[in-house]
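agent: user wants the structure for Acetyl-CoA C-acetyltransferase from Archangium minus. delegating to structure tool.
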Amino acid sequence: MGMSYVIDAVRTPRGRGKAGKGALSGIHPQELLAQVLNTLQQRQGFEPREVDDVMAGCVSQVGEQGANLARSAVLAAGWPHEVSAVSLNRFCASGLQAVHFGAMGVASGAMDLVIAGGVESMSRVPMGSDGGGQDGNNTHLRERVFQVPQGISADLIATLEGFSREELDAVALRSQRNAARAIQEGRFAKSLFPVKDPRTGTVVLERDEVPRPNTTAEGLAALEPAFTALGGTVVGPKGETLDQLALAAYPRAKAIRHLHTAGNSSGIVDGAAAVTLASERYVREKGLKPRARIRAMATIGSEPVLMLTAPAPASQKALRMAGMTARDIDLWEINEAFAGVVLQTIRTLGIDPERVNVNGGSIALGHPLGATGAMLLGTALDELERSDKQTALITLCVSGGQGIATLIERL
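agent: tool returned. relaying tokens verbatim.
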């Protein structure tokens, strides 16, 4: 096997993901991804026809995000018809999974140049728009395992781990403060580009729209738990509530403590991102200077009710593949789907919290489902270069009980 090199990474700003309310809500998701593709091409000067494939993650593949969004984005970008493209879905890991597939292609020698990333317009195609729920509405599957919504799983994790509301809010406050510092110091500037209206050329958004730099511990503490009412919803075949179904799988919890709020959970946003990946052969022939190489990639499954605990074992799997330990990693990007996920991963792996999400995360910046993984990789790479560090590990939890991890090394 050869090496997979990261040549560049870019992203849009994250726009508020409410219909008609956010700056990106007027931009079709195909156009968001198309602008990412053209920005990469303009920065690097490659010939689009040299791209072997465009791979894009997207979670809600219905409506405007259906019909192979990636292929439509290639056409919207004005790239040659010969450039192929594929859309994929591994829920919140979709953008990073696209990077994995692209890296596999170039490392194997089957491909030389791949653009991989993802997009999600949560304002135009809200979560759940495909109608599939957690399990595709398969009643036979529900007889074997009844999967609860992620918010219930997050609160169950917090209950089992004994996390307090104050600990969860502290993660959120740190995310907001770190993001505010990163924005003030221009730490995102290298990867960020302004999104324009494709018809008028007018800039519609040039910086992340959702961070709340004035967030306080008192303000976070005043927020009501987000999933209490959801947990009391009756959905079971024998009249069980969602909380009761979760507790049936984890009776030692005794009672679920609903601790996650809108303030310590990820924000709903629009956005797109991508990474340029190249083979050793392409790098040598073109005289390129890669920014990083991918040392290891891993995915893993986990118990589907608790669901969100797989970042730790996925990271351990990637570390084993690279012959490394958690202590060897300079920077960690642990997706802040919920504060409890970050704390559980840190505790399980014994990570120094000061190495985690140093420029904020999805609690402050938002989580555009299909794009987040690629965004986190770009953020990690930029910070490795800024702080003159070498290694970073990016990991996300995944709906239905999965995890993903990518280990990169700066060159």
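agent: one observation worth passing along. The longest strand covers residues 269-279.
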